[in-house]
Amino acid sequence: MSSPPPPAPPFAVARAALSGGLAMFVGIGVARFSFAPLVPALVAAHWYSASAAFWFAAVNLAGYFLGVAAMRVWRRRYQGKTALVGAMALTALATLGCALNWGGVWFGFWRLLAGFAGGLLMVLMAHAVVARAPAGLRGRVSGFAFAGMGAGMSFSALALPPLLAHGLAFAWAALGGLCALATLAVALIMPPARIEPPPRHKSAGPPPPVVLVLIAAYACSALGFMPHMLFWSSFVAIGLGRGVAAGAVMAAWIGLAATLGPPLLGRAADRFGFLPTLAAGFAVMGGAVALPLFTQAAPWLVGSAVCVGAVALGAVMLVVGAIAGIVPPERLAADWGLATMVYALTQIGGAAGLSALFHATGSYALLFRVGAGAMLLGGVLIFWAARLAYNTSPP
Fold first, then answer.
1. pLDDT at 182
2. With the C-alpha atoms ordered 81, 83, 87, 92, is the resulting torsion angle positive or negative?
3. Band of the pLDDT at 393, cuts 50, 70, 90?
4. What digits encode the pLDDT tens for the residues 259-311?
5. In terms of Cα–Cα distance, which of 255, 58, 83, 238 is closest to 156?
6. What is the pLDDT of residue 170?
7. How many other β-carbons are positioned within 10 Å of the β-carbon of residue 6?
8. Bridge partners, residue 79, by sequence
9. Which one-letter DSSP state was computed for residue 362?
């Protein structure tokens, strides 16, 4: 019997973590989260209407779902580094394509492609970086890698206003150029990662019950994040009458927390375990989502934004780390792919449902109640998953 391969040296782990962070920065942070701040500019420049911008966002989410689904059913061996760099290059190309105002079909195609590449990257990064990290470092590696999403969100909030001062086409081109530079960096620094296809019989069939419960909890966090992701700025700016600048500052707090939260939660997961850290995170996030129901004082609202941003993005890496510790490596791509697909569908349905609810009632408080209720249910499911994991673990 051949001996197992030696663990990757610390320098290789660091390079892999940085590569994963850059992949998330490009595929999710820039390609997805930069679109919302650009919508007012698209409308003001008469490129597209506000309703068309909504459909472009929906098309992007649909592409993301397709990308995740494609990775979930992939059954051939591949080079993880080559695939990651290729998907990042595709994202850069799609972002550059958006710089040309050649009509709705053209723009929609590139938004679909950007979403598809983002879905590929979400699963690829987990398989090529997180799953290959030493067990004792998995929390820190995944935390650093998934912090790239929050970094992209923060970058979008802070860098786009000066970029837009030079025009909408310039802003899109600058984002595409940044994505291309990040792709080149990953091509230079990422260590090789050969991914063997799992035997069909080992990856077929439903996930174990503990993973199904964990996926349901993950979906609850997607719904719990929706009030802050979609309505937080308008709640502060319009609902509380504090102006657009105050709303933008509150959104920036979410992005900053989303950058710092995953690494901190990753270190906690390495020390206390992924499921206990996830349970604590859900409790904190549930309280933070409900906080605006009890006070609108600015320091408390900042605390709400920080806690929600940190845990909502941190939950992504905590869930993939928890699944990686529960299932054998050959099941990770399929089970994490399913979790990501369910999360994406919950985001789509949650965005539509909460938007319709707000349109019908005009109540921000009702949105926060729905989000807090989803987090409460998610916390119960996490405790159930922890109980199932304990009962099924070997003595």
1. 97
2. positive
3. low
4. 999 999 999 999 999 999 999 999 999 999 999 999 999 999 999 999 999 99
5. 255
6. 96
7. 6
8. 194
9. -
What CATH number labels 206-395? 1.20.1250.20
DSSP 8-state code for residue 101: -
Distance set, CA 208 to CA 48, 168, 345, 377, 388 (Å): 46, 48, 21, 20, 10
Contact 193, 81 (CB under 8 A): yes
How many CA within 13 A on the CB side of residue 331?
Answer: 18
Tokens 């989803």 locate to 374
Axis crossing angle, helix 168-189 with helix 80-97, rounded to the nearest 10:
170
Residue from 114, 148, 113, 116 nearest 129 by CA: 148
For residue 78, the cross-strand partners are 195
State the CATH architecture for 7-197: Up-down Bundle (1.20)
- As given in the structure block, the two tokens for residue 286 are 């549930």
- How far is the CA of 29 from the CAs of 4, 35, 121, 153, 328, in angstroms? 36, 10, 12, 5, 29
**What mean pLDDT is reported for the chain?**
88
pTM for this entry: 0.84
- The CA distance from 36 to 57, in Å, is 8
Dihedral (C-alpha) 54, 55, 61, 67: value to the nearest 10 degrees?
Answer: -150
Closest by CA to 24, choosing from 107, 125, 94, is 125
Say which residue the tokens 């959104």 belong to: 251
pLDDT tens readout for residues 202-234: 556 788 999 999 999 999 999 999 999 888 888
Residue ranges per structural domain of the chain: 7-197, 206-395
Q: Distance (Å, rounded) from C-alpha 4 to C-alpha 388?
A: 29
Shared fold status for 7-197 and 206-395: yes
